[in-house]
Amino acid sequence: MKKNNNLLEVPNINSSDAHVKNLIYKIDDLFNSHYKSSQKSEYLCVCSGGTTSSCARNGLITLDLRKEYNQIHLEKEKNLIKIGGGVIMKDLMNYLEKHNKTFPTGLSKLPGAGYILTGGISPMSRRYGLAIDNIESIKGYLGNGNFISLEQNSLDSSQKLLWEGLKGAAPFLAIITEIGLKTFQSHPIQIIEGFVDDNELSKIINLAEGFPENLSLQWIYAEDIYIYIFAEIKNDSDNKITKNYLKKLEKFNSLKIKSYENYNQVNFFPKELDLFELNKNNHSEVISLLGGDLKDNVQIFVKCMNEIIRDKPNKSCYVASQQLGGKTKELNHKSSFFIHRASTWKPWIYAAWKKGDPKEKEIVLKWMNESWKKLKIFFPNIHLAQIHNHLNSHEEEVYLSFGERLSELKTLKNICDPESILPPL
């Protein structure tokens, strides 16, 4: 085995440190007869952006899509952009910005197409839906090697279930080489941000649960609490609504208003804020939860959060959250394999430890799992943005992600990936 020196830069330190068995850039190399006979259908890691702990692993094969599948093509008259499976969100947004267009990407610009295919929750999702709600076409290869080319407007009855499965559960079924996405006209953005205390967080969460679709709340609780209220100003109505909410927020003295020409210019949770300890010698795991409105339980929730943060094992660990709702609740839960359409909040637990320190790793993962257990009462479901088939929680996470559609997913898995070269369920 060798360290993955030929991988492009990998943001996730776990994957960056992996000693991979083999590195592949082209799908043709994966499915040719020599490879298939020599590798005996071993489990494959797929890297589209490099932000997860599962894109490279010790002793396993990695397919890095970023080198050969990084094409971007805008069909401006159709408001459609086609991107390769190895395009990272930063490159997508920079390209769209040149054409005064935008797309609902997440808080970080580092992820690749996996962000889109596993759901894609954005500060803009309340108005424009999840990333998967804006997929128009998909090309790629099933785990069995068969090429697929699907377009939403020309699906036949035999393709419908696969189309739905690829929107939310693609990593289990296929390697995606091209995605066609709707794009949207870019508009000015206002951000209301600052440090708040736990009592203020409770009040702001209650306020946010009544937000119109052009507003959303994001927060992080590490050593202190920092919030972002995102507002898109598309027209006079947006401007008026946002001003009304700004008046309600005036009592929170620490909050400041910043204006941006477009969404791509916003940089969430920059390292300059020193919100948590960034350490390049850390390994980490992330688990993402989903749940509905907190309503009258918000103070109990914040008290629970205080306990979780009090008990965190080091300064690198934190809990953060994004807000859903609006458009994300309108679509039928059977339109994709992101089934938890009633969700309002997506909190995630970030757990980090010094690499090479198994004792600290054990302590940190115990904290992550205990924190998850405490938060389940508020957020009972999972958003499977990162696949943890190397952790004991994997099967429970899969069940809490796909619920009533898990049996359909297992059927698709047996058809599309019978030798299980892609992550197992």
From TrEMBL:
Protein name stated in the entry: FAD linked oxidase, N-terminal
Database matches in Pfam families: FAD_binding_4
Keywords recorded for this protein, A-Z: FAD, Flavoprotein, Oxidoreductase
Cofactor dependency: FAD
SUPFAM superfamilies in alphabetical order: FAD-binding/transporter-associated domain-like
Alphabetical list of PROSITE patterns matching this protein: FAD_PCMH
Domain FAD-binding PCMH-type: 13-186
Recorded family membership: Belongs to the oxygen-dependent FAD-linked oxidoreductase family.
InterPro entries: FAD-bd_PCMH (IPR016166), FAD-bd_PCMH-like_sf (IPR036318), FAD-bd_PCMH_sub2 (IPR016169), FAD-linked_Oxidoreductase (IPR050416), Oxid_FAD_bind_N (IPR006094)
Nucleus as UniProt keyword: no
Gene3D superfamilies: 3.30.465.10, 3.40.462.20
Gene Ontology terms, MF aspect: FAD binding; oxidoreductase activity
